[in-house]
Amino acid sequence: MNTLLRNAWLIPAIPVLSFVLIIFFGKRLPKKGSEIGVAALGISLVLSIATAVAWISRHPVGEGHEKFRHAVDHNLFTWFSMGGTDVRFGIHVDGLTVTMLFVVTLVSFLVHVFSTEYMKGDRRYTHFFAALSLFTSGMLILVTAATTLQMILGWEIMGLCSFMLIGHWWEEQANSDAALKAFFTTRTGDIGLLVGVSVLFFAADRTFNAAKINELALDGHMSHWALLMGATALFVAVIGKSAQFPLHTWLPDAMAGPTPVSALIHAATMVVAGVYLVARMYGVFWSAFSIGAEGHAGVNPIAIIGGITILIAAALAFVQADIKKVLAYSTVSQLGYMIMGLGVGAWTGAVFHIFTHAFFKAGLFLGAGSVSHSGSHHSFDMKKDMGGLKKHMPITYWTFVVCSVALAGLPILAGFWSKDEILLGAGSNGYTAFLVVGLIGAAMTAAYMTRCVYLTFHGEARGNAAEHHPHESPPAITGPLVVLASLAAVSGLLNAPGFELFGKLNLNEVFAHAGIPEHHFSLLYAGGSTLIALLGITAGFLWYFRQLGPHGITERSRLLRAGYVFLDQKYFLDVLYTDYIIGGIKGPIPRAVYWFNQNVLDGVVNGVGVGARAVANFVYDVIDQKIVDGAVNGAGFSAEEGGSVLRVIQNGRVQSYAAVMFGVAAVSALALALIVSR
Amino acid sequence: MLLNEFLFLAAFLFCVGVYGALARKNAVLVLMSIELILNAVNINLVAFAAYGHLIAGQVFALFVVAIAAAEVGVGLAIVLLIYRNRHSVDLTSVNSMKG
Amino acid sequence: MILAATQHLDVAQNIVFGLVSLSMVVAAIRVVTTDNVVHAALYLVVVLAGVAVDYVLLAAEFIAVVQILVYIGAIVVLLLFGTMLTRAPIGKSADLDNDQRWAAAVVSLFLLGVLGWALNDAWGSDRLPPAQVQRTADVGNSIFQTFVIPFEVVSILLLAALVGAVVIARRD
Asked: Which residue from A442, A652, A641 is spatially nearest to A534, judged by alpha carbons?
């Protein structure tokens, strides 16, 4: 069994191989590469399930509160050694890893199957599947990572694939802009990731290993200042990647990508990467922000950001006409729940919410895809091109409804259990303000989902839904919908009271070390949250299904009209970012730099050039022409004059030469004789 | 007999030969003077051969004779050619290398 | 007895040498001072013959004979041919000395002085040993054993000189 856990690195490796194969061979295959992708993800899914089974059958070790399954932290190889530190690559498998593996591979597999039908005939079908594989491998690398460096690797791969996939139809300017916006916004956050990883490396005595960093953080052996800086920097990255306020603006625009992409990346997997990071490095956050400390102030940065995000995103979901944008804001809001959950100490609840949210949100997105594919003729505008689709697309309708109810948090269905745990944690750990925020958010969630269901499936058919004969989608599309809806229905029972398998499986070293309190099912909280959810649904039902309430009020009241515009313009955040912040930097700084370049730098260079030319002229005129040439000419002149003097000797007569020769020989002989005789 | 008798004789002949080679105008007379020089050398060689009981001196003298013969042959050929071109063997007029 | 014979021989040698060298000296000076080219050649013959007699005195008989055969018999003949072919004036001619004869005289006298002094200094009173006749066979052995390579080279030289002389002097 341990072999499976130790070789969990295979699970990310298979999609990487699939990526390479699709790139090189995809176009030549009969199904254009999708068969490789589906097969690879199928294998990874099977391996993930096997790994989960291996994990479940692992024996818990320890006693009482300390009794849990110990993680497998397996070192694969040492990448390089520098300055006494070994940088290693390894895998870390525990309950959280196994949960994420299952979620990612399952949703990715279902999205692959969905895409074979949805993306049929697309202009870049093969590359789509290649990018999907690469993305999945990135996420899998992130969740199996043992070191923070590997997490960076997976994080960045996902950033790249998100860019590629959002901009899949880049020929239209809007899509390309959306891809860039997503990339740059998350990149802004990634600065925090790099800073945070580096700070924690040095604070944790030069190690990248996540488990060790958590341990050292909880032991109190890190300098508090470094810990705080590292945690804050990491949290900035989380804000960017998981679309928290204020860096949430990219997620709704990312809906410009194909619907399967939205389902996989922007609902189930990539956006929860930030939540996963917090969950994995929880020891660091727990210590840095004193989440569980006695007498804490009832607020901490994580919870605050999460709480704000819940509310503002839920509010925005009410004014969207595009169904995908509704779901996008809903995702942002639910991510806020997860972050808030981690901020109030409800670790199990937050992770469980990742688990359940993946299923019903992916189901909702794929449902929207099904509607656009077969119902509204490729349009996502609820107000213009949908309505009355219930009778034409029953499977889509019922799966959509099941997932919506799960999202709203009615009992038995998955969302109830996970959201309830978060609220329970908020209340029990002393974060009462956030309990209130969570309840308000739950009500709003229920209400806007009711609106969404009504506008899409009920009422009179409008636009495309009326003209283009809506029909049910083919099995490749409805199959995944059914699977996801079923999971949305039953997965919550995994952590039902008395059973609580999920909680037990996910106990880990951080829990034991930090002493994170576990809370069990409370009927009070359960009842309270159900009531709130029903309140929201009822309000929505009355407004839309029965057309009660003050319809058209925003036309009549100036104040409410202003409020509507404020919401419509997404709180003017986009304007703030693009025009003021970026625009303010874009203008003056380049101008200043250009001035510096032209006058100072070029001035120096030109000056050097002028100086060099003056020196060269001097060298030529004085040194070369006068001195050197003078010497050379002088040598020639003296040779000539000397020659004409000596020429007299050459009279051409052999006998005179011979006379000279004999004379010299005689003199030399005398000299020699004198020397020898001495 | 004194060795020096022969050596002095040889030296005298050598110097007379040198005078003749430098002072005579006719090319053939110059050649004759050169023969005097060579013979002086030969006397030296043979005298030393007798003095030191070296047979090599006589052998060398033989070679000198042979070479002298060859040299006179070639030298006269050149003189003939000079005569043919200039119609005189006056060595003072052979000065085209002047300058 | 032998000593007396040697002494007698010694005296005879000295007398012969004195006569011969006197004639050689006179003849040599006449070679370089006479006005008549043919007379010069004949005086040269006298010198060459005297040299041959000197060789005999030095007990180098083979060389003496070679000297007479080659020098007098061939080279002088060649020189006389040369004289004839270059239309040298037969009989007295105007002058056969060029204008640097005083310089030449100085040079040769100086050279004589140097040589004389050097010779006197080196072998002032060295006597020649009693003459030991060198057998021609010894000379031949020496040539063909120790000095065979110079011999071969001289052969080639003679060939080259022969061919060269023909090439230089031919009419074309």
From this structure: A442
